Amino acid sequence: MKSKGFATALIFLLLGICPLPLMAEDEYQEGFLTSYLNRGIEKAMEETVDGDTLRYGRHITKYVSVPQFGGYVNGKYSYSSQDNAGNNGFECRLVRVYVSGTILRDFKYRIQLELKNPAMRDYTLEWVRFKEFQVKVGQFKRCFSFENPMNPWNVGLGNYSQLAGRMTALASEDCSGESAQNGRDQGLQFQGDLFPIGKDHHRLIRYQAAVYNGNGQNKKDNNKQKDWIGNIQLQPIKDLYIGLFGWKGTYTGSNGVSVKRNRWALSSMYEHNDWSFRAEYAHHTGRNVNDFDTETQTWKQNSTDKADAWYTIIGVPVTRWLKIYGSYDVYRKDATWGTMRSVYSICPNFQLHRNLMFQVQYNYINDRISADRNYHELWALTWVRF
After folding, report:
1. Which domains, from first to last, does the chain contain?
2. With 60 as the cut, is the pLDDT of residue 288 above it?
3. Using CA atoms, how far apart are residues 233 and 228, in angstroms rounded to an integer?
């Protein structure tokens, strides 16, 4: 049966899949259909105000940018040789739509919705008058790690790293027991880029400091504490970033148990001339709420208060439409070698058009706490912007 599943995956693999160049932020881009919508709205808003003096007031109708609409769909076929694997087959992973724009030049808004299982993903309002100091409020990606804020199109693989998943509750339960939150939370963030240097005047320092509810997306806070996350990034040469991230907070589960989550990460990222490199290490201190036995009011015997993760990814351009990524990805449930889960991946990316991508990914997994410790995965993904 495994050979039949593998053959099916290979056939689908040959039919098509892919991702695109890497970007540092979850930026929105229009698709081939929404470009017509955006151009039509532009024609309806031909009036320019660039030369006018800006005077604030509730009756102002000018100084509103053309809203930018977009959306994309991500489909997947997956095969796993793991014993009793139940996820082989086709699935729709994401159907996203979004809109962004500016008001009074200095205020930028973004809204993003998930249509597969309808839910709000992002709603933000930003004051962006100065590069050195900007303010964002709403629901958005937690500013922890380089990878979490990235758009799924630009990660380079068909999935985020275990570090992003386990340390930000991106696509799986995080170290504290918080269920998957798409890496998002509600809060207030300050950020800026400081000190232009070099002939190209790139910014030497980027900083971000945020306070969040700590309870994930689309949820009110359920305790009296807030989560504080911050980072500082150095760019000694253009496109090379070295970052230090910190997180101090408290998570309260549905069982009423509260645990600390103190995390830090050291990261590097380089994206230049279509070459890509990222490497990150993160460490977590704090228990998992699901390890608390509410009947005996004690922690389970195997409960620990530490976890860590790291990964390295390299992207090599081969042609204008082909780029190959390789990665080594590790998560250790209690920061010991006995709980190590390693994923070795290779992922050709075929970008035939800015709105059409195909991706094929092979994973070899070594999971030391699983009954079936070594197994293979083959994925095929399609990406379309509309």
Report:
1. 2-47+64-385 (2.40.160.10)
2. yes
3. 17
